[in-house]
Amino acid sequence: MTELLQHLINGLSLGTIYALVALGYTMVYGVLKLINFAHGDVYMVGAFAGYYLGAVIGADRSPNVGKAALVTIGAMAICGALGFVVERFAYRPLRHRARLTALITAIGVSFLLEFGFQLNPLLRAPVEFPPGPAPRFFPALVDLGPPLEPLGATVQRIDILGFVVAILLMLALQWIVYRTRFGVAMRAVSFDPQVAGLMGIPVNRIISGTFVLGSALAAAAGIINASSRPRIEPLMGLMSGLKAFVAAVLGGIGSVPGAMAGGVVLGLVEEFVAGYTSSRYRDAIAFTVLILVLLVRPEGLFGKGKVEKV
Amino acid sequence: MSFRRALSAAAVLLTFAACEQKKSAPSAAPAAGQGSAAPGATIWFGHVGSLTGQEATFGDSTDKGIKLAVDELNSKGGVKGKQVDLKTYDDQGKPEEAALAATRLITQDKVTVLLGEVASSRSLAMAPIADANKVPHITPSSTNPKVTKDGEKTRPYVFRVCFIDPFQGTVMAKFAKEKGIKKVAILRDVGNAYSVGLADYFLSKFKDLGGTIVNDQSYKAGDQDFKAQLTAIKPKAPEAIYVPGYYTDVALIARQARELGIKVPLMGGDGWDSAKLFEIGGQAIEGSYFSNHYSPDDPSPRIQDFIKRYKARYGAVPDSMAATGYDAAMVAGDAISRAKDMTGEAIAEAIAATKDFPGVTGVITLDKDHNAVKSAVVLEVKGGKAVYVATVTPDAPAGAAPLPASAPAPAAQPKPAPY
C-alpha cells in the first residue's frame, strides 16, 4: 500500500511537469498547426534562467518565498521573450511555406539552443554564459521544511508546492483561453487564420502572444522541476520535451484540458510501469504510448475526430 | 535574388568550416598546431578525452594529469632526447566521437602513443582502431576487461594502467561483507558497459560470499527521475544499494533516495570520483562508499609529492583520473625510452614489459592481458570529501573472475562489443 501510494505521488509529480510543458506544445499546435520541437529546450532555458537569476539575487544564500517568486516570474519573463524572438525570426518568415519547412526549422532552433548552451562560457560576469555542458546544481529557492509522511510514503513539500503552482497556472491558462478576448482571438486564429485576419484580429500579435504564453509555462515547469530534481544541464530538455509532446498527443493535440490530462496520465503510466515491471523500459513506455495512441485513437483522449470533407 | 542565396549558402558553409576547427584543443606547446610530427623532432602523445559532455570532469582531470607528466618528462630532457608534445581531442562524451578522434590522431596527427579514455564504452570504441593501425594505446582508467581483449585473445596494442572490473567488483563485495552487510540492491546504468560489467562482477562475488541481492534495477545516464526504481527497492529493505554509475547520476540518486526515506549507505566504483559528486549530492551522499584507484590521504612520499606538484600547477587536489592520466603518460614515456626503436611494435613490446613501475596510483606491473595488477582503495564520503577507509589487494593473479553466463548483454554501442 505504501509502495502504491509512493508510486502515485511520484507519478503525479512527474506528470505535472509533463503537463505544463505539454500545454505549450498543444497551444502552438492549435494555433499554428506547428509542432514546436524547440519547446523542450525553452523549458531547459527556463531552468537556467532561474539558476542565473537565483545566483544574481543571492537566493542560494538566503532562500525565501519572495525570492522564489521573483526568480520564477523573472524566468517566465525571460522565456516569454525567448519565445517571442524565436517565433518572430524563425517561424514567422516561414508561415506561408510548407509545414515541413517550419518543422525542420523548429528542430534547428532546438539544436541551436541545446548546443549553444553547451559552449564554454564567453561571458564571465555577472554570470557564466553560456553555461557549458557540465551539469550544475540548482540551489533550493525556498526552504519549506521536512517532508510529509502520509501512510508511510514520503512527499517532499516542494513537490506539493510544485503541484499546486502547476494547477494554478493551468487554471489561469484555461481562464485566459476561454474567458478573455485574447483567448477568443486565439481560438479564432486556430480555427482559420485568414478569416480571423479579415475579421480584424491582429493575427501576428496573437500568434506571438501564444508563443510567449507557452514559453512562460515551460519556464515555470523548468523551475518547478529543477527545485525538486536539482541537476540542470543543457540537454535536460531533450527527453522531457519529447515525453511532453507524447503527453500532448495522448491528450489530444490542440486541446488544453487534453494536455493537462495527457501529462498526468503519462507521468503515472511511466511511474507504474517502471516501478512494477522493469525499469529498463522507462523511456520506451512514453513512445509505446505514442504508437498506441496513434494506432488506436489518433485524436487523443480529448480531441475530436476530424472528418475531412472533400 | 540568386546572389543573396549564394551569399547565405557561403555563410552557412563558412560556419560549418569554423565549427570543425573548434574540436581540437592543442596543448600550449610551441608547435605550429598542425599536428603531424616532423620526423625525429618531437614525440606526439594523442589524448582522447571527454572535455565536454556529462562527464566533463573525467576528461578534464585526465588531461591535466597527462599535461603535468608531459611537462615533467620534457624538463628532464625529454624521451630519447626528444621533446614530448600533447594533442588532445574532445570526444564530447560519445563513443562515436572517441573513435573519430582516435582515427584523426593516428592518421592525421601521427601520434606515437594514444592515451584515453576514462569511460570503458569510449575506450572500447578506440581500441580496435589502435590495433588496426599498430599504434600503442594506453587507457588510464577504463576498467571494463573487454577493452584490452578482442574476443578471447589480448589486443596486442592496447594496455591499461589501472585495475579491471572483475577485481573492482570484488572490492566492494568484500568490503560490504566485512561491514556485515548481507542484503544489497543494485541500481545500474544499462546504457554503459562499465556500469553493467561492474554490477555483474559485484553481484557474482557478493553472492559467492553468501550475500543476497534483493533487487536489481536499471536507469539510463541523464535520467532525472529515479524515484520509480528507488520506490521499488525500498520495501525490499536492503542494507546498502550498489550504484556503479557515473557521478552526475549517482548524486541525484542519492538525493532522491534520501527524499524517499532510504537511509542505508550507497556503494559504488571509480565512476563516482569527481568534485561534482559532492556539489550536487550534498548531504545526501554523506556516509556512502566507493572504490577508487588512489586516495589523496595516502602518506606515501611519492603520492604526496605528486599532489603538491599538481596543486602548485592547477590549484586543486588531483582526483584519481588526473593521477591515472599522469601514470599513463609516464608509463608511455618510460616504455618509449626502453623501446629498441620508434615503431609501434617495439613500443608496444616495451609497454607490455612494464614491471614494478613506480606510479602515483601504485606500483604498476602489466600482466599478460595488458592490465595492471594493483590494489584498490575504498573511500568514504565524509564532510564533503572522500576520506580513505581501507585498501583491498588482489588475491588471485590478474584478479580475473569469470563473468556469469546469465549476464545481460551491454546496450548497443556503435561498434558491436564482442559478447
Descriptors for this entry?
heterodimer; A: 310 residues; mainly alpha; 2 strands; B: 419 residues; alpha/beta; Rossmann fold; seven-stranded mixed sheet; six-stranded mixed sheet; 17 strands; 40% helix; 19% strand; disordered C terminus
Word description of this protein:
The complex is a heterodimer of chains A (310) and B (419). Chain A has 310 residues and is mainly alpha-helical. In chain A, 69% of the residues lie in helices and 1% in strands. Chain A has eleven helices and two strands, in the order H-H-H-H-E-H-H-H-H-E-H-H-H. Chain A has helices at 2-32, 39-57, 65-91, 99-116, 157-179, 181-191, 193-198, 203-228, 236-251, 256-276, 282-296; strands at residues 136-137, 231-232. With 419 residues, chain B is an alpha/beta fold. Chain B has two domains: 2-163 and 301-364, 3-Layer(aba) Sandwich (Rossmann fold); 165-292 and 376-399, Response regulator (Rossmann fold, 3-Layer(aba) Sandwich), CATH 3.40.50. The longest helix of chain B is centred in the N-terminal third of the chain and has 21 residues, at 2-22. The termini of chain B are far apart. Residues 21-38 and 397-419 of chain B have low confidence and may be disordered. Chain A binds chain B through residues 2-3, 6-7, 10, 13-14, 118, 120, 132-135, 137, 147, 149, 154, 156, 225, 229-231, 233, 235-236, 239-240, 270-271, 274-276, 278-280, 282-283, and chain B through 52-54, 56-57, 92-93, 190, 217-220, 222-225, 227-229, 231-232, 234-235, 248, 251-252, 255-256, 259-261, 276, 279-280, 282.
